[in-house]
Design a protein that fits this description.
Elements (H helix, E strand, L loop, with lengths): L3 H14 L15 H12 L11 E7 L5 E8 L4 H6 L3 E5 L8 H15 L4 E7 L3 H9 L3 E2 L3 E2 L5 E8 L1
Antiparallel strand pairs: 1-2, 2-3, 4-7, 5-7, 6-7
Length: 163
C-alpha cells in the first residue's frame, strides 16, 4: 500500500504510451488501490478466479528510490491456452526504463520465485516481433520450442527454462 503513488505513476506512464500493458495484470484499474491489491492477493490464493484461470502471483520491480520499474505475473500452472500462448511468466518494464537491463533482472528474479512456487520447468513466451523480450528470455537460459500461431496470424515464440 505504501507504493500507491509510485504505482499510479507507473500505470499512468504506460497508459499514456498507448502500448499494450504487459503483463495483463497492470491493465487492472488502480483507482481503488486497496481493491486492486486484494485482487492480487486473492489471485495468488486461488480465490474468486474466473473459470479456466489458474492461481497467479504478481510482483513489482522497485528501485532504491521506490520507483516502480516493472511488473511480473507468474502463473502457478499452465492451461492448454497458457501452454500455447501465455506461459508461466509475463513481465514488462515501464517505457521510460527500457534498455537498461531491468527486464533481464526481472525475469531472473521471477525464475527464483517460480522455483519457490514449485515450478521446475518454466514456459516464457513473446511475440516474434519483440526482439528485446526474446533476448531477455535467451539471456535467462531460454531454450526455443515450437512457435504458436494465433488466429490473427501473430506468431508467439515459446521458450522453456529449467529451474
Amino acid at each position: 500500500m505504501e507504493l500507491e503513488t509510485e504505482y499510479l505513476s507507473f500505470y499512468r506512464e504506460w497508459k499514456e504510451s498507448g502500448e499494450d500493458m504487459v503483463p495483463w495484470v497492470i491493465s487492472k484499474d488502480p483507482s481503488n488501490f486497496q481493491e486492486m491489491i486484494q485482487f492480487f492477493l486473492d489471485s495468488e490464493n486461488g480465490i474468486n478466479l474466473p473459470e479456466n484461470w489458474v492461481p497467479d502471483t504478481t510482483f513489482w520491480l522497485v528501485n532504491d528510490d521506490k520507483k516502480v520499474i516493472g511488473a511480473v505475473n507468474i502463473r502457478h500452472r499452465l492451461t492448454d491456452k497458457l501452454l500455447n500462448c501465455g506461459g508461466h511468466i509475463g513481465y514488462g518494464i515501464r517505457p521510460s526504463e527500457r534498455r537498461k537491463g531491468y527486464a533481464t533482472k526481472l525475469l531472473s528474479l521471477s525464475l527464483e520465485k517460480a522455483k519457490e512456487l514449485g515450478i521446475q520447468k518454466v514456459l516464457v513466451v513473446c511475440d516474434k516481433s519483440n526482439i528485446g523480450s526474446e533476448k531477455t528470455i535467451l539471456n535467462n537460459g531460454g531454450v526455443p520450442d515450437s512457435d504458436f500461431i494465433e488466429e490473427d496470424g501473430n506468431i508467439i515464440k515459446r521458450f522453456w527454462i529449467e529451474l
